[in-house]
Amino acid sequence: MQLVLFIVIVTFTPLSCEVQSESTPDIFENIDYMSKKCKDKLREDLVKKCGESSYQTQFVLVSECTYKCGEEHNNGQTKAKTSQQFRLNDWTPCGHDRVCRDGQCIDRCLLPFVNLKDDKVTL
């Protein structure tokens, strides 16, 4: 009887300690307005930037002019999820003929093409 109990415990203990992980879709597949080279550079920069934090070390999401770094933990008893959102730099492409400016994705044609005397840009 003790042998059977031992076998059951040994069999199921590793299963209860495994971290459940969901497959995350590759969000960069949806960014069709950037070349592969630019997407690869964006991904590399985001992974590096998120890795600089000692708390939110994983790149989680990019959406128009923001990106999110975070962590998810699940040891079978405790679940925790933390994240922090940041802005992409100004002039980062965020759509077809659109760029980031002050955290907003705006149409490139709204940007001034030349500096006019006494012209104030409002975005």
TrEMBL record:
Subcellular location: Secreted
Record-stated family: Belongs to the salp15 family.
Leader sequence segment: 1-17
Pfam families, per database record: Salp15 (PF12115)
Transmembrane in keyword set: no
Key words of the record: Glycoprotein, Secreted, Signal
Name under which the protein is recorded: Putative ixostatin
GO CC terms, sorted: extracellular region
